[in-house]
Amino acid sequence: MTNGVFKSPVHRVLSSSERDRISLAVFYTPEPNKEIGPEEALITEERPKAYKTVKDYADVHWDYYQQGSRAIHVAKV
């Protein structure tokens, strides 16, 4: 994780009725039981750790996703 340095882009589409539109969905999921957390190089005194190291985040993510909400608050310090 980037400790808040990089933000996810907002998905926007500018479509044309004159041309076909092609969409591609790409998903990345960490390995089960793998711990993920902020990249150590992005944690400084000026930018302290904003997210905990978490395990099985994909499971937590999908549980919240099915409820229509986001799970990122689970990882916030």
UniProtKB/TrEMBL annotation:
Entry keyword set: Iron, Metal-binding
Domain Isopenicillin N synthase-like Fe(2+) 2OG dioxygenase: 1-30
SUPFAM superfamilies on file: Clavaminate synthase-like
Keyword Ribonucleoprotein: no
Keyword Metal-binding listed: yes
Coiled coil feature spans: none
MF annotations from Gene Ontology: metal ion binding
Protein name as annotated: Isopenicillin N synthase-like Fe(2+) 2OG dioxygenase domain-containing protein
Origin species: Eucalyptus grandis
